[in-house]
Input
Amino acid sequence: MAHDPEPVAGGEVAEDPYARLDPAVRARRDAALKHVRRFGDPVLKSRARPIERFDGALRDEIARMGKLMDEALGIGLAATQVGILNRVLVYRVEAEASIAALVNPVLEWSSGELEPLDEGCLSLPGVLVEVERPIHVRVRAQDESGDPLLIEASGLEARVIQHEMDHLDGVLILERTSRDQRKQAMRTLRESLAEEAQRVA
Ligand code: NI
Output
């Protein structure tokens, strides 16, 4: 999930909010984003497989995802977004906290109480759409060694976990928002992906 550096009223992004970043931070972010699959890549629509082997390769993958998320200034990243169809996600909601990794997460319970909030996604450059989600969730998962985890999360943490779990099922925020916002987002995406292609060329 992308961090929204400056929430904009109405969900419209007037200009690139990352334009004012320190040039070195921005360059590092651009480099990290090259490893993140973008809208249109079929892997983003694919369902990830459960992890059965908790080995060094898994730990390396988790470390790499955490680093990428950090450099891309994201607050969450799912393995599908880096082209790996494993049920693994990382997130960090508070800047000072350590990066959390969930393997094989399963939603055990979610509150009936919902809350709408604008969400961005590292795979959908420039897009910010309103998504309504349960405020509280309880999720069972495993850590990188295979030990069981039980997470009770609320607010932004609950939202990020749900956003990343959606990725593991091939679901994007475009499918979780209103028809109007989806249409607007598709226009934004076409523009930002074309712009990116030009920059890289
Ligand atoms: Ni995302």
In short: Confidence is low (pLDDT under 50) at residues 6-14. The beta strands are 76-78, 88-91, 100-110, 114-119, 129-134, 136-142, 148-154. The chain has one domain: 9-200. Residues 1, 121-123, 163, 167 surround nickel (II) ion (CB under 6 Å).
